[in-house]
Design a protein that fits this description.
The protein has helices spanning 2-22, 30-48, 56-66, 69-90, 95-117, 124-141. Helices cover 79% and strands 0% of the residues. With 144 residues, the chain is mainly α. The protein is globular and about 60 Å long. The chain has six helices and no strands.
């Protein structure tokens, strides 16, 4: 059940993410807008923290001690993702197409990462799905 709830939360949040970025006023400085977004996200995250199971104080301290470079690098990547998406919508991308193009391209580019660094494997079914993704990407960007 948790398996499906997690993907459901991700899908709903992703839809809201794109809608809210698309309706962000164009005359607002994108970095100011995203700063407010990050402050809001930080506050919500801190409010949710007590809901996470485990011995709270020890868990928090241990988690802080075990952080590595990835948490900081993720912060930088998120800024790039947010600024890129916000500016893409301001540049005229349709909300119905931008995510398909971006997500499909990211998926294709992550395949070698998964294979080389995480020792994942490809099945014949996965390869066929990948080919369909590439065909879809070409068709979506094809101008008649």
């Amino acid at each position: 059940m948790l398996y499906y709830l997690t993907v459901g939360l991700t899908i709903i949040s992703s839809i809201l993410y794109h809608v809210f970025l698309k309706v962000t006023p164009a005359n607002v400085n994108p970095l100011i807008s995203l700063s407010v977004t990050y402050l809001t996200a930080s506050l919500v995250t801190l409010l949710l923290l007590p809901l996470y199971p485990g011995d709270k104080l020890i868990s928090y301290i241990e988690s802080l001690r075990e952080l590595n470079w990835a948490s900081y690098a993720l912060g930088i990547a998120i800024v790039g993702l947010e600024v890129g998406t916000l500016l893409a919508y301001r540049a005229g991308w349709n909300i119905s197409l931008f995510n398909i193009v971006a997500s499909t391209t990211v998926t294709v580019l992550l395949i070698p990462v998964g294979l080389l660094y995480f020792k994942e494997s490809l099945t014949n079914t996965t390869i066929v799905g990948l080919v369909f993704c590439l065909i879809g990407l070409i068709l979506i960007n094809y101008k008649v």
